[in-house]
TrEMBL record:
Pfam families named in the record: Aminotran_3 (PF00202)
GO MF annotations, alphabetized: transaminase activity
Keyword Transferase part of the UniProt annotation: yes
Listed cofactors: pyridoxal 5'-phosphate
Keywords assigned: Aminotransferase, Pyridoxal phosphate, Transferase
Keyword tRNA-binding (UniProt): no
PROSITE patterns hit by this protein: AA_TRANSFER_CLASS_3
Family: Belongs to the class-III pyridoxal-phosphate-dependent aminotransferase family.
Classification via SUPFAM superfamilies: PLP-dependent transferases
The name this protein goes by in its record: Aspartate aminotransferase family protein
Length: 456
């Protein structure tokens, strides 16, 4: 048997991959007919594949490599921590310096009184924690019936049983008989696709008020929490109209519903602030974090919770935790990542340099015949592909196909850009420079032109 290294021919790696590696969100045909793209190394915002092609990664991996690839400091910290204390748990009244230091740092960065950190391995299991946490919270307060969680259709909150249930992806629910009981949904604030003739702000208000209607339908004494991303990421970078979040906040306050902001994508500078909740002026009781917390260099996630939620959980024994909750290597890497984000002024770079430049260039794509709205907040952005800008029509039966074709054209032009139905999305590393943004836009435009030739 050949030793598997980067030096094997691509076709051989692809064949072994297709034979033995079950991939997330990929069909067997995609692997056997075309083969996976094998990524060999990465530096800054560029990936290098097994054919030596340099690919501009406008998705920062899966929305996570905020500081860019190839930062030795994180590798050094990981190696040092592995030598000193590779593992110890945080169960049963034990702790260690990386977990303590990271919790203190997150409490400092998080808004309001979100001062307490419960560690997980990623975003999905942090959201699983949240389900148990909010239900335990209300039960401990003498309201065990207050356990329904309201989410939104087309949301993505992970792939575990809990994460998939909280998400509003119907295709995911169909696999595994989900959601679990006690999860309810309202519609998303996607004006472009669903706003019809309504003014965007009226539409935002109407969508927010669906939360109130749902609470009244279920009974306020039965609703534990509402969960949402400040800006819906994997759903297609859906930016709600300005009227939406203030109304959601009002409703959560009025009915004493815990607000869970899923910051897995929006956190750690993506929107220009540490958290999307700060950008959108949201006051969550719990935030889910992962991805940019370690810039993807080590798997780690967390629930950051308010003083009040922590007080109730600490008064009982919250019988929950993962073997790797607060893994010392992951915590040390995350801490170093936060140091780099802070000391190198990367959030300021996003706010003052990268986001304004990208916004101008991204908006310019609206002159393309196939592009409807172009949306952007910080360094997360989307365009809606449409055959008719006036009616905001979707490509109907071809929705998804058109996005897929466009994504394939991007791939051909060495640009990684994702599609969700007929929306194309980006979320580049936060360190991207104006010159690199120009290259991104040039490749995106070329890909759109090529896709347009194929579908018009
Ligand atoms: N929540 C959101 C908003 C996400 O975008 C994701 C992943 O894309 C998750 C949760 C799940 O995180 P993970 O894949 O780390 O489990």
């Amino acid at each position: 048997m050949n030793k598997i290294t980067n030096h094997l021919p691509t076709a051989e790696l692809q064949a072994i991959d297709a034979a033995h590696h079950l991939h997330p969100f990929t069909t067997g045909d995609e692997l056997t007919q075309k083969g996976a793209r094998i990524i060999a190394s990465a530096k800054g915002i560029y990936l290098k594949d097994s054919e030596g092609e340099e690919i501009l990664d406008a998705m920062a991996g899966l929305w996570c490599v905020n500081i860019g690839y190839g930062r030795d400091e994180l590798a050094d910290v990981a190696a040092r921590q592995m030598r000193e204390l590779p593992y110890y748990n945080t169960f049963f009244q034990t702790s260690h310096v990386p977990a303590i230091a990271l919790a203190q740092k997150l409490a400092e960065l998080a808004p309001g009184d979100l001062n307490h950190v419960f560690y997980a391995n990623g975003g999905s299991d942090a959201n699983d924690t949240n389900i148990r946490m909010v239900r335990t919270y209300w039960a401990e307060k003498g309201q065990p019936e207050k356990k329904t969680i309201i989410s939104r259709w087309n949301a993505y909150h992970g792939s575990t049983i809990g994460g998939t249930s909280l998400g509003g992806m119907k295709g995911m629910h169909e696999q595994g008989d989900l959601p679990i009981p006690g999860i309810e949904f309202i519609e998303q604030p996607n004006w472009w696709a669903e706003g019809g003739d309504m003014d965007p702000e009226d539409f935002g208000l109407a969508r927010a008020r669906e939360l109130e209607e749902k609470i009244l339908e279920i009974g306020e004494d039965k609703v534990a929490a509402f969960i949402a991303e400040p800006i819906q990421g994997a759903g297609g970078v859906i930016v709600a109209p300005d009227s939406y979040w203030p109304e959601i906040q009002r409703i959560c306050d009025k009915y004493e519903i815990l607000l869970i902001a899923d910051e897995v994508i929006c956190g750690f500078g993506r929107t220009g602030n540490w958290f999307g909740s700060q950008t959108l002026d949201i006051r969550p009781d719990i935030m889910t974090v992962a991805k940019g917390l370690s810039s993807g260099y080590a798997p780690i996630g967390a629930s950051i919770v308010s003083d009040e939620v922590a007080k109730v959980l600490e008064a009982c024994e919250f019988n929950h935790g993962y073997t790797y909750s607060g893994h010392p290597v992951a915590c040390a890497v995350a801490l170093e990542n936060l140091r780099i984000l802070e000391e190198e002024g990367i959030l300021e770079h996003v706010q003052n340099v990268a986001a304004p430049h990208l916004a101008e260039k991204w908006k310019s794509l609206e002159d393309h015949p196939m592009v409807g709205e172009a949306k952007i907040v910080g360094l997360m952005a989307s365009i809606a592909l449409t055959p008719n800008k006036e009616t905001r029509a979707s490509f109907a039966a071809d929705a998804g196909t058109v996005g897929y074709i466009t994504r394939e054209c991007c791939f051909g032009n060495n640009l990684i850009m994702r599609h969700v139905g007929d929306r194309m999305i980006i979320s580049p590393p936060l360190v991207i420079t104006p010159e690199e943004i120009d290259i991104l836009i040039e490749r995106a435009r070329k890909s759109l032109d090529e896709a347009y030739e194929k579908v018009r």
